[in-house]
Structures are given as C-alpha cells and as structure tokens.
Design goal:
The protein is α+β, with helices and mostly antiparallel strands and 570 residues long. The protein contains 24 helices and 17 strands. The two termini are 49 Å apart.
Length: 570
Amino acid sequence: MSFADVLKLYLNKTRCTAKELSAASGISASALSGYRSGKRVPDQEQIEKLICGFVRLAGEKAPELDEATVRDAFSAYCEKPKLNYQTVIKNLNVAINALDINVSGLSRALRFDSSYLSRIRSGQRKPADLEKFIIETAEYIARTNSASIISELIGQPAEELVPVGRCASKLCSWFSSETIRQRDYLGELLHQLDAFNIETYMSDAHFPQTAHIQESEKLSLPKYYYGFDEMKKGELDFFRTVASSGVRSTVYMCNSIPMEALTSDAAYMRKWMQSIAMMIMKGADIHMIHDVDRPSDEMMLGLMSWIPLYMTGKVTSFYLPDASNRIYCHTDYVSDTAVLYGECIRGYHNEGKYCLTQSDTELAYYQKRIRRLFSKTKPLVKTYRTEDKEAFNHFENSEGLSGGARINVLSSLPVYTLPDDVLESMLENNSFKEVEKTAVRSYISRQRNMTQAILENAEICDKVYVLNEKEFSKEPVYLSLSGMFLEKGLRYTYQEYQRHLDATKQFAQAHLGYDLHTDAVHTFKNIQIQVNAGKWVLVSKNNAPAIHFVIKHSKMIHAFEDFCRPAAKQ
C-alpha cells in the first residue's frame, strides 16, 4: 500500500475532508493534494504533522481510533534513526539528570527491575531490543513531563511537542543524536571552587570595605511588589533593610523560584551578591533552604551562587527532604527585624505578589513559621573551617571509616603513599618549623592508618594527573595538607615528586583494593574530591581558604559519582 493509499484510507476512517486535515495538521492544501495524488512524498516532519492532524480529528470524529493505531498505520513510512548504543545511554543519563526523572517509575514503565536499569545506565548491560527501549522510555518521559521542560532539553519549540505522541517521537530522534551539548553545571561549580580566593573576593566589589547605608535610603514599609522584576527588587530591599537595622541578625531564607530565571540577569546577580555580602559584613548569620526538588543542573546552578558565601563561614545550607509541592513557588525571607514573603504559581513568575514588612504582628507570625519550616530540614552542605578542625576529625574517624567504595579525584599525589624519607626531605626543603613538622608527621601517619583501615573493607580508586618534567617546571607543585587545615602545602622538587609517584604505584601493586588512575585529565589544582558511593561526598579546598564541604543529598552524590567515575580500562 502506497503512502497516498494510507492517506486516503485515514481520511475515510476519520470521516474528515482534505480541508479539515489541512487545518488540523498545518500542512498547506496544495502540499496535501500532492500527497493524495501520489505525486509528492512527505518528509519525516510532514508525516509527523499528518499523524498529529489525524489524531486531533479522530478525537472529534472517530474516537474509536487512538493515537497508537494511527502511528502504527504510518510507521512504515517513518525513517528510523540509526542507533548507537553508547550515544543512547549517554543521552538517557542526560535526560534523567536534567529532568529529574523518577527512575523507579521509569523502571516500572519499562517492566524492568531498578537494578537492571541502573546497569543499563552504567553501560554494564544492553537492552535486548534497543529500539523498543528508546520508544517506551520516550513515551514515559513525554507522559510525565511538561512540553516546556522537555523543550529546554531537546531544543525544540514547546508547541512542536504537543500532543504526547509527537513529543515522544521527537524524543526518540533526540536519543539517537550525537550533537547534544549539555552545560556541565557540576564541572562549572567545581572549577569555580578550585579558582576561588577569599582575599581576592573580599577585596572585590562583592565585599565593600564599608557597607554604609544612608538613613535617607530607608524604605516606607510595608511595601508590596508585583511581578518577577519587582520581586527581585524586593529581595534587594529586604537585604538592605536587614543590613541597615544595626542588629546582628539571623536571616532565614527560602525561595523556590527557578535559579535560571534569576541568574540570567547578570546585573541583578551582582547586586544580589553585594547585598548578601553587606548583611554578612554587618554581622548577619544566614540559614538558607535550597530547593532540591528541581533538576540536578538547576540545583547546581543555585549552589554556584552560594559557594563563595559558604567560604565566609556565615552561611549554613539546608534542604527539605519532603518538598513535593510543584504548584506554588514560595519566597520566605525572615530576620529579627524584617520579613519578605510572597508566592506565585509555578511557571507564572511574573504574576506573583510579595510583601516587605517590619510589622510586629507579621514578624512574630513569620518567625514562628520559619522555625517550623526549618525544623523539617536536613543539612545540605556541611562546612568545616579551621575553627571546626575537631569536628572534621570526628567526621573522618566515624563516617570517614565507614564502608563503601571510594573514588578520589586528587589535585596532588595521595599523602598516605608518601615515603618517610621523602617527607623528611620535603619538610627540610620547605623550612617548616619544628611544631609544624611534628603536626605534619602526625597527620600523614593518621592518613596512612585510615587508608589501611578503609582497604580492609572497601576499595579505593585514586584519579591523579601526573605531570611530566616540562609541566612540573612551569609552576610550583605542592602536596596538599588541606586535611589538617594548613594552607601552605609541601613543595616538591621534581626528584621528590618522582619518588612519591613511584611509591604510589608500588602501593597500588601491593594492595588489591587500591586502583590508581594516572591518566586523569588535569582538572583541578586546589581541590580534592572524595566520593563514598551512595553515602557522602567530601570536597576539600587546599587554600585561600582551607575548607571542607560534606554533602549527603542523594541527587548531588549521584552527580558527583557520574562526574568522578573513571573511564573503563581498555
């Protein structure tokens, strides 16, 4: 049966005219006439439009015809994309992370065990029928996500992703595409942390030396804000009101507005950072609830704005483990002296309403409300600074020694493989004081003992970029001592570096549970990443300042696992 025959058949089945089909499909009458006569053959895009047109008309005139039946009739004329397994799996993982897809729900839709789908995602297993796998996955995603969200992922206009069948078809093509370029939000976050220097940051306009506010700038309150742009002004007014109060305040913040909507305005974000900095300079302690009930990339984008502020030790982050509301976006900023509150319907941010007030009645109400809200939170990023050294040691002694496979991305060779004679040579060459030498020896001995204890029950994979002599000579190379909050490292000579590298390779040969990857990309100079699979992530900054971040949220752990996972050895 020719395409023209199938077209005529479905004009009869749906009891519609060519004019009605033209209107429903968006295909011109002349083009449709050519298809009916057999003089022209439609391309894939036109076939998709015809299918969608017939589905719309069937809903009105022939309800016995469902979308699956119509698609099946035209399937023989739809060109199927060539499938590359690696490309499909890569894009599947991009979609799951970007859309925050419920993996358990997808497993049920595919009639797979969750562990089997996990092995498919990691490349350990292949679906028996890859084409069927793509189609059913695409159909699930199209059913469970809005066209506007999918539009951002696959780069298609939202109006082209309706109805669900058309959306699924577009997704099938996208899964097979090798031209996808996704923004690496986690990589950007880590590179920002790697390059961060708090002295430079504080001397910049972010932290003005004198956060002075004129009395004449004080606002007449209460003040109301309507729409998205006014909401952003309301945020800045709240920060300024808190900073000008003269009270060393605790500020509680929760805002579920999508971060991309805020960060796209660079001028506003700079004012936002300056205003937060101003509150901190005035003595405010900030407690922030991050909205993690959003795609992973968007969550990382939000953290990128906050990482510099974590360095001050004045910001503590939390998340709500049960935040299933997808209808409203709420803003709750509460201090001892002022409140900014408001809401909007998700997706209609320009129709929101917000209020900034210092009313005693409103303060009392929202202070109680925010305490109740924070009572339901869990820590998102636990920060350890120099003054928290004892607490960090407790973390290492307890959770640091817990079971679980480890992946470490290191900016220098691991301290626990450093030979004693090389250590003594480095201590002497770096002119460390005796008290510092004693502390360093104790720290490295402790790390060796911890590593041995971990290897008794788990595996460790270290990823290290090895410098050649030419690269080594370009700039000083240090052994990181961030674990003891010492901001100066031990500088190597090239001979000491080679001795340490040889010792690390020997350590790998002597310990079956230790895997050394020396072919890692030269990614970071000032941070180390430790991942305890499924349990926690530790990100340590070597200097300016020496600081550690512990992350336990499952979504972030999975993102770090994907980022740090070494490539399979050939």
